[in-house]
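lol so apparently i was supposed to do this last week
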Amino acid sequence: MRVVQLIYASRPFGFHDGALEDILAVARYRNGRDDITGTLICRHDLFMQLLEGPRAKVTATFARILRDDRHVEVALLWCGDAAARLFPDWSMRHDPVRSWMWSRAALAEGAVAGATAEECRQVFVRLSREPVASGRVSEAGRH
Ligand SMILES: Cc1cc2nc3c(=O)[nH]c(=O)nc-3n(C[C@H](O)[C@H](O)[C@H](O)COP(=O)(O)O)c2cc1C
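anyway here it is w/ flavin mononucleotide bound
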């Protein structure tokens, strides 16, 4: 089934221990209900998220995310149709910034803002082929 994929980046605001767990808990609950899958790359100075699913649900979810005051400078990087999901088993996977993505210095110099839409999409394509960094064991169904 064709889906829409949307990628944005933003800067965490007021980040604290537990903030990520709060975000993931709500995201996984709502996304499970809305047939949305994806992954959230997170570091203290970067959020980068791919949402995929039915167009109307992805659009509505992104509208809520845009209003969220736990991050600022939300920049839409890519939105387009895809033949298949990249993260079919994840209502929201979570990954740290990997060493092959961007260095701290490159991020500080605006590497994400300077990346093309295709480069951003390729980050998630590559990530989807790699095991989860936390080593979480798969269970039946979506996580
Ligand atoms: C970085 C980030 C990622 C988020 N990802 C999702 C998500 O994938 N799905 C979702 O429903 N909400 C996500 N949220 C939470 C939404 O912004 C919002 O708080 C939540 O959907 C509940 O919205 P409501 O209070 O208007 O009902 C995310 C928030 C942040 C800051």
